[in-house]
Write a structure and sequence with these properties.
The protein has helices at about 5-15, 20-30, 35-45, 45-50, 55, 60-70, 80-85, 90-100, 105, 110-125, 310-315, and strands at about 145-155, 155-165, 170-175, 185-190, 195-200, 205-215, 220, 235-240, 240-250, 255-265, 270, 285, 290-295, 295-300, 300, 305-310, 325, 335-340, 345-350, 355-360, 365-370, 380-385. It is an alpha+beta fold. It folds into three domains: about 5-70, no CATH class; about 80-125, no CATH class; about 145-385, 6 Propeller (Neuraminidase), CATH 2.120.10. It has a four-stranded antiparallel β-sheet, with no helix packed on it. It has a four-stranded antiparallel β-sheet with strand order 4-5-6-7, with no helix packed on it. A four-stranded antiparallel β-sheet has the order 8-9-10-11, with no helix packed on it. A hairpin with a 6-residue loop joins strand 9 (about 240-250) and strand 10. Helix 2 (about 20-30) packs antiparallel against helix 3 (about 35-45). The longest helix has 19 residues, at about 110-125. The radius of gyration is 24 Å and the shape is globular. The N and C termini lie far apart (about 55 Å). This is BACK domain-containing protein.
Length: about 375
């Protein structure tokens, strides 16, 4: 048995729903035909588990079409598969002339009803195009006028997910990924744009910033870089200004207490008062006019304390520009994401964690909320109005 055959035999034993698409791509690029056939069969048999993985959400359109059109695809029912297709995004003529005339749709009552409902929605949408105040129905998972939580990047991650906290199932969905992977980054929102600040590219600390436009589902890099290269920092927006707090000056380097403030209008960063203690892997968010710095690491110890800073835009005084201690968390948090939604703080992910906890400041306690699709170590978390 040669080296290639040995490797292929090993990879066959390692196939899982979370990696089978990547293994199949690897095998194809190295002309390992037997492994390609084995992976193809595994994918077709385990399709209903694979659809919840990150690899599936990153499939190119052509490969997704090939997979869905394979007659050997195993699903509990064709109706279940059809329910997940966003038929309301189809062109009306395609829905009427092609989908509704499909043999399965015509003979299966459930499929027929699903397509009929989509056709009715499209008729309503096209008949009300001259009324901009009308909401487009069922064409997206998110509705206009409410808040959505976004989880950005993570450990060697470019992926971005969003979730409606008021939704019935608390389901997370993928959107456009970052332009480059940003380990230990963090994010903030101003004018409904997400800013991903600093981080590390795997070798060097970054001072660059990416900006996300939810209307176009795109990331751009036209923001002035920070003054300090760092990672594992905390980032938040207060009064339309972005604060970059603490972090490391190297991958495992010196812990910082540096705080920088970004003026969106001037596209400029300036230094402001430092935090009371040096800390990294912290999370920062704004709630009730205060800037919260939660958890993190200091001298190798996970921190459960919470620090808050008063609003500088309305009450800023250089003589009182300082951080004060407030009630601590019940547990320390390393590398978690933090966002304020509807008067509560959501602590999301963290090192080797895939769950969400929510803090109610009125009741002064934390509780379990939901599970992510995958583990997000050191993610950035932001909140946008639904597009």
């Amino acid at each position: 048995m040669n080296a290639q055959e040995t490797c292929c035999k090993f990879l066959k034993r390692q196939l899982r729903p979370s990696n089978c698409l990547g293994v199949r791509e690897f095998a194809d690029s190295h002309s390992c035909r037997e492994l390609v056939r084995y992976a193809d069969n595994y994918i077709l048999r385990n399709f209903q588990s694979i659809i919840f993985t990150e690899e599936f959400h990153q499939l190119p359109k052509t490969k997704l079409v090939q997979l869905l059109s394979n007659d050997k695809l195993v699903v509990c029912s064709e109706e279940q598969l059809l329910e997940h297709v966003r038929l309301a995004l189809c062109r009306p003529e395609f829905l009427v002339n092609t989908v509704s005339k499909n043999a399965l749709v015509m003979t299966d009552a459930t499929c027929h009803n699903i397509v009929d409902e989509a056709k009715n929605d499209l008729i309503l949408q096209w008949s009300t195009l001259e009324c901009p105040e009308m909401k487009r129905r069922r064409s997206r998972a998110c509705e206009v006028g409410a808040e959505v939580i976004y989880v950005v990047g993570g450990l060697r991650e470019r992926s971005v997910e969003c979730m409606d906290p008021e939704g019935a199932n608390h389901e997370w969905q993928y959107v456009a990924p970052l332009n480059q992977a940003r380990d230990l980054t963090n994010v903030a929102v101003v004018d409904n744009f997400i800013y991903a600040v600093c981080g590390i590219d795997g070798i060097n600390n970054l001072n660059t910033v990416e900006r996300y436009n939810s209307a176009t589902d795109q990331w751009t890099s036209d923001v002035t870089p920070c003054l300090t290269r760092r990672c594992a920092l905390g980032v938040a927006a207060l009064n339309d200004q972005i604060y970059a707090v603490g972090g490391y000056d190297g991958y495992i380097g010196r812990t910082l207490n540096i705080v920088e403030r970004y003026d969106v209008r001037q596209n400029k960063w300036t230094s402001v008062a430092p935090t009371r203690s040096r800390r990294a892997r912290l999370s920062v968010s704004v709630l009730g006019g205060c800037l919260y710095a939660v958890g993190g690491y200091k001298k190798g110890t996970a921190l459960s304390t919470v620090e808050s800073r008063r609003s500088l835009a309305e009450k800023y005084d250089p003589r009182a520009n300082k951080w004060i201690s407030v009630t601590g968390m019940s547990n320390g948090g390393e590398g978690l994401g933090l966002a304020a939604v509807n008067g509560k703080l959501y602590a999301i992910g963290g090192y080797a964690q895939s769950w969400v906890e929510v803090f109610d400041p009125k009741a002064n306690y934390w509780k379990y909320h939901s599970d992510l699709n995958c583990k997000h170590s050191y993610p950035g978390v932001a909140v946008l109005q639904k597009p």
